[in-house]
User: Fold these one by one.
Assistant:
Number 1:
Amino acid sequence: MAEPKLSLCMIVRDEEQALPRCLASVRELVGEIIVVDTGSSDRTVEIARSFGAAVVRSPWRGDFSASRNLSLEKAAGEWILCLDADEELTVRSKEDLAGLLADQSKEGYFVQVINFLREGEDGGEILKHPAVRLFRNRSEYRFSGALHEQVLPSILRLHPREAVGNAESITINHFGYTLERMRSRNKPERNLEMARKMVSDHPEDCLAHYHLAVSYFELERFAEALAEFRIAFRGFDPRVSYFPTVTRNLAVCLIELKCFTEALSVLSKGKKAYPGYTDLWYLEGLARFRLRQYRSAAEAMLGCLSLGETPSRYVSSLGVGSFKAHYLIGQIMEEAGEAETAIEAYIQAWQGHAAWVDPIHRIVKLLHREGLGAEAIADRLSPYLPLNTSRGLVILADTLFGVKEYATALVYINRAFLLGPPAGSLLLFRGRCLLALDRTEEALEAYDEIRKDDPLYTSAAIDGCLASWCGSPPRRADGIIESLGACQDDTGPRNSRLIAALEVFNRVAAGGSSLLASSPGPGPGEPGIFFYLAKRFQDLGKQEPRDLAVRLATRGLGPLEAGKVCFHHELFDPAARIILSAFEEGSWDAESCEMVAEICCRRALLEEAEKLFGQALLLEPHRVQAARGLARVYLQRAQELLVKGCLEHPDEKSLELRLGAVSQKLASLS
């Protein structure tokens, strides 16, 4: 029997959900499948064997390279393809793949790995990076590194860089960084522990610090990531393969932490070393935009568009050389008061990546702010949105809903219904439009049409309860909650907690707030559910049920603590009221003073904010956030005076320079 040309090699554990998609993508392309299972307790092994895989069981040793190399030892093909279970292979054609494998001058290939960072693959954030996943089956080629293992170093030890080609026709879609997958697999925490051990074992190794930085970065712990990236960056050598990524991610951390000046310094060095790395230009523009240096930011974005998308050899965020650059230009023009220019830039961003709807939302908000009515907005967008499709109508309805044009949004949702059988998502959206319009009975009818086996049924049931409680007069939601409970018997404690919380709210809403005194303290998970209800009631303009939900969420807490919790859930009106009542009773601390000061800033009550930030600093002199808040208040006042001065004395350039300096400092503190 002839040896298979291409062997797929994998390591897996408890991957029954993801594995079928992966194996189906390569079934017609590979001659054999080698799967090393490191301890699955689900149907992973059974699924792998159903695709004809040879399964090797091996206990997890805390070393990805060891497991990966075991799979290579079992492979008989001339070439190796390595995939993870949460990936799928896309190949332009079998002929393209055959041509790559027939090239005698190549020992391996870089392919593009496309990391979807949000479920749905809608282009909100897609990160690309090159990786050697296709290479010849030679005993000398083995992976190294316990974490973020690589095979490329072993190839380069024996061959020049030219022996590793770029396979432009092959990409790997990676779904492992979607939020849902990351949470369910506990992947970032596992990687963090492994990376910490690497640094502990090799404290002088820049690569170990880089891996630890990446682990913190994935968890969005930017301050800790920054410290590790700085250590890695100290050994900066533009020839080292991972240093372009160090430069990029170091700048991202600095921008996230509002260290814009240092970010610009890092990016300046990086651009000299990697002049074609478009991401660095984009990040410079983003930093300058945050500093309100709009002209320089726009120049950086024009540089991005001139360069185009980042070359495949670098880690890159999709769109920095196209639609994302246009989008940031739109934001710059919007801040500069150039509405029409901003709209044109947003249109170009939308046309560059139509799966990304943020530009349409920005256009609608701009037009609405300019005084256009809902119908006029729809007419303006009609050349760019496919309003003969359900998707185009829903996008338009969603954007109008976002600016509270609920009636017109409902019109377009109803048009979408005419194009085919109503999906659960359309019924849910229709119900929300009707609920926002206070047409609660019609909203309930829309929710009732959603089938109990629809994934959106739970959302519809919650909305149905909200509609019941918002009705005039309010009616009890017993039947909806009972129906939800009947179809949630085997779904676990999370839905049980939801049903219990809905029952509590329904009982108190029907019996009056006097029942609060006799109700027990909140059960596990209940406060989060009540805060969710409070925010929904707030969005609907229903103050009384909102306050009831807040009282249920905070029962058992003292006034000061209750107010702080409301603040953290962005329920600022109840937070201010509750904390101020605590102040009247003589109870306060630095944190509560700071919170009310922040609320005052939101309401442009700068004099009151100044007093409260000052009080916070009297109580805790070293409280950094209060000091920053007080500085913001002073800078906002200075900015207002300088703006007025510039308008009254347009020829006085010194005022304009001072305004720029104040605005830059204010941006760094905001």
Number 2:
Amino acid sequence: MNRQIVCIIIFSIVSSCVWCDPGPRRVIPPFRLTLLPGVRIPMGTYSDIFKPNMGIGLDFSYNINSFPVVLRCSSTYDNIPLDNDLDLTLLSFGLMIATSFYDTPLIEISPYLGGGYFYSFLQDNSDYEGGHPFGTAGVRCEYLLTDLFGFGIDIGYRHFFGFSDDISLTLSFRSKIFFPVGEENDLNSSIQCINEIYPVLYDYYQNNPSGSVSLSNISDKSIIISKVTFFIQDYMEEPENVLLDTILPGKESLAVDLYVRLLPSVLTITRSVTSLGRVTIEYISRGKIKNRKHVQSLTFQPVNLIQKSDPRQISAFFTHNDHFLETFSESIKTSVTEYTSAEIDTNIFIAMSTYNALKLAGIEFLDSPSLTDGYRVIQFPYTTLSRKKGNSVDIAVLLCSLFIFLDMDAALIVTDDAVFTAFSINLKPDSLNSHYKNANNFIISHNKVWIPFVYTTKTRSFYEAVEDGIRLWTENSEGNSSVLYPVSELRKTYNGLDMSLIDDDITIDAVQGTLLRNQNKMDVNKFFTRQNPLEPFPAEQNAVNEQQNIRFLNNLSIIYAKFTMYDKAIVLLHTILLKQDYIPALVNLGNIYYLLREMKKASVFYERGYEKDPLDPVILLGLARVNYVLENYGNVKEYYRKLVSIEPELAGEFKYLDLSGVKTSPYPENPDSIIKVIWIEK
């Protein structure tokens, strides 16, 4: 292959590298100087005359900013040994055009081509000297230690027209040259950060941006955004890295979200304070590491303040790990456990007991606005309990927080003028119409059935609080101004404040369980006997609904009996027995008369049940207990023996009935054995 073909091939390859787009390019310094010592290997016609030799070159480079092109002025010095022990000196001067691209930010690959004029002479003082044009092409690969200095290798081909050609292998040592020129503006940046921070959203800001910074590359070259950090003085331990090692192409923009990891000390802010937020941008442009800094004044609002525009933020006050609420909720749990029913939803009793607990704790409703110039001022639950007063939002927050501790499914309802609470029942929406005739008074949302209620004054019963909630929901839902937010959904965004972070010595006395149970007894009559959203279908409807109504009435009678409202329970049970000898009604009526110490009446209903099912252990127990009090000990032995054979564990709970031939008194030593009865719910 002759020299002309080699030149054409190399020229074509290098030209394609220069003019095609090889992808992202490192922006190189505008001016630099490169030293090139290396070895030249002769080739072609004169390779048998010239020997490999050492040489040195010097490049002065200038980067054209608007194109991926570098212009180089080059000069070389070569000392070429000849076969006849003479040396030939060769000097060259030329211009080259190059481009640059890279695989990593530290490596630069630069193909080039060019030409110029060379001058040569012998070093034996002879008259030989001469000069001709030359052409060159090659590629240079450099490792950049800093934006000021780099080193690498250069492999090139030189053709000296009318003389010779060679391949050069040289080292390169380059350095940036400083000229008194103005620095080009290649990156515009601006802060778009909110100027308010709400301490109660302590955890929220870690995963949700508090603002953003806009970055715009106004040059034609790609730049590398090395790092963007955000730091708030006094309230962050260290800057938060929000962006690392990102290429920003020419003429493109990028928005970077700013996150913060706040110190717990923000929770002590009780009045507006100002701090400085600093955004630092580190980037590489034209081979130089640059910095941009922005400082913005940020306002920290008081810990009890949020924006009105986002009512979901109210849930940030639903506290957890709260010692005060945990203590308070324990008394509520105690008052609920003994009043449960398969037919009457347990959540109703939890909500009722929670409502009455607040009344007994002396919580006063303040009819005052919670808005201040577009903000909501909200008390934490423990503050409402300790102050014993709060507006509608404060009490709604307290109720929702208590429901969290009680494992209750609750929701926050927000209207234009009010904030109140709702709780869900365990009935599915598609079963609502078959269970309750006033289904329109329920709220169906998020595949659940909800009952709203409003705490206003201590004199209103739980039933009246439900009526108020239904009225407010209905009035505002017509204009679509009522929104229901389930607590479980709200906590996915605003998980509430961990109260273990707050050091406070407020103590709260737990509501006495006895007082709470007595209050529940007073309210249950109003709630379950008046016309209300939980009224069942009337008995005259179809057989399926009638059977459901019988079960409902039976279980409602148990509720009345547990609240010692025996007269109401007896009426309901007799209503059932007028239709059929329903075993649960017979047994439960016998239990009530037993508790009323009317043993003969109790015996009548136990025996009616025995005729229908002689193997029912609760009936056998009832007959044994009644006969024990009536001193019919023979019957006691018979019924108790059957009970032992059928249900030995139940028999063991009433060991005093095991006479075993021993004469005993009509009353056992343990009074609890007399009071305890077993209710049948079906």
Number 3:
Amino acid sequence: MLGAWAGRTGGGPFDNSKLAFSNDADNVWTCPGGGEPMRRAGVVQVAGVAALVAALALFLLLLAPDHDAATGAAARAEHVQAGSGGTPAAGEGASSARRRDSRPSPPPTVITLAGAPAGRVVPRSFLGISTEYWALPLFEPERALLDRTLALLRPPGGAPLIVRVGGDSADRTFWGLTERQEPRWVVDLAPATLDQLRSLVRRVGVRLILDLNLVTDSPLTAARWAEAAAAKLPRGSILGFEVGNEPDLYERRFWAWTIAHPVLGVSLLPENLSPATYARDFSAYSIALAQAAPDIPLLGPATANPVTGRSWATTLMAYPHPRLGTVSGHVYPYSACSRPGTRSFPTIDRVLSENASAGIARRLGPAIALAHGAGLPFRLTELNSVTCGGRRGVSDTFATALWAPDALFEVLRAGVDAVNVHVRARAINAAFALSSSGMSARPLVYGLMMFDRALGPDARLAALRVRVPQQAAHSQRLKVWAVGVRGRRLHVLIIDKGSRPARVDLLIPSRGRATVERLLAPAVSATSNVTLAGQHLGADARWHGARVTESIAPSARGYMLTVPSMSAALVGVRLAGPTAVGSHSAAASHVPVAGSRGPAAASRGRAAARGGVPVRGGVPVRGGVPVRGRAAVRGRAAVRGGAAVRGSRTASHAPAAAASHPAT
């Protein structure tokens, strides 16, 4: 053991080849045959030191986390079959020379499919991106890289990628300025802007959401921009116009300092923005846009905090709003503008916490219910882990790759109808960066692609029951999501945010082999060397390396696999029998959707009604869109955020009751 440990440290003070040292005249050690006899005291002291070192080495080996041993165990059990010539990727294969975690392993976590995939249907084009107006000319020189990067994020099933353009830059935009030199804070919407957008639509097939200037512009001039965009861009390519950006954060003093310009004077600024003034402004924009772009709906109120700022949406919908097509808001669980020590200050542990995924979904519940109650979809036009551009050492780490699919599934299950992940050029929290040196793939983009791969055509959330053994309750933090897709396929995404590898038994009605793709990195704090199914994205925005998937045969315990700590695994299997996507057995029709947190309910029998709203399986439905509702616990305890179960408890994933705590 001592020799193996020394070899791992690259020699050092306990390298066997350097076993010669002296302390003083009374304690001299020489190699055998050195000519001088060893003294008894020296032998005793050295023997004690050697014993102490051996014990220390054993202790360090027992404490060290081991990703390779976890995946190696699956390979030794003949559950792993490497693809692409049989050569496993780094961290995914087994080797006799690798470390093994000698601690006794707890019993496996048992994950059971609870009937047919009968949860929420995943909306087409659910995942999109958002960016700033000023980023368009920065991306323009790297067209080929941008096209390949966006193609990687294209939704499954042939749906278009939705790109929202606006953000902070929206309230700085002007169309048709005649000044030769605009102020530095102005973003000029010139004909070249429309050329760039039109080219992007035609090359990649994206659809657009365009933000309108609410603060420094007027409804009439904003309508001119909308009219030009509707005329210049391909018909049907504009999904909507969003009126303003985060009006709940408006501060007149900040904008007065920003403008400081004789032509575009401070007098243009509103005295304040409130829910009532925003609703009136929205009506004015709606009237102006009815003439300029009559067929394109509007989005609003685009609040920075749809939880504490719910009154903005409530007031807006109390006014006549015939052109309002989508209720929009933004969510960032943490802020780089916060001071250390505050609750909203970002750290890796906080990004991995339930507050950053299940927490934001739970708090969004009232806003989602408000939109759905009016028959409108709810869209997060901005989502990311950390606002203010992100924090280095947090927003650019592998933690965001584990956060992203979990958070997206949480808000999807909660009822959010679409999400745009904000990608600001040159920002730390951006999923990718483009430059003359190529595309830089941040860990976040791997998490987004893992989410996309977990979906598929005709995707529908499926319910799971998760039983975590008592021995693993304190070290295991699993999140498990299941999706049924066309062709009777089931995708199960397992995210291990715990301190130890997780052994999992998947009980799924299938006799065929399952495939496994893994999302791995050297450490949760890593900013590079991320792999998805053994491959990494190069500077050319293409996949590099041999694609590595594992193949698992079912056993009496189901599909057995190990998920290393701080990694994710996507399991794909073809369902057998009646438990297929699209089946509507009586037992399956009331199964709650996967990945919930907190108390849940499942109404049985015929559809009930709550206040005139039809209820299916405990979830009120309006126009085919599930609305958040209360639910009854299945099993002995409810799952937390998909699978974080404490103790030996069995639970079903079901919609959670919404809370109204403010988001940070």
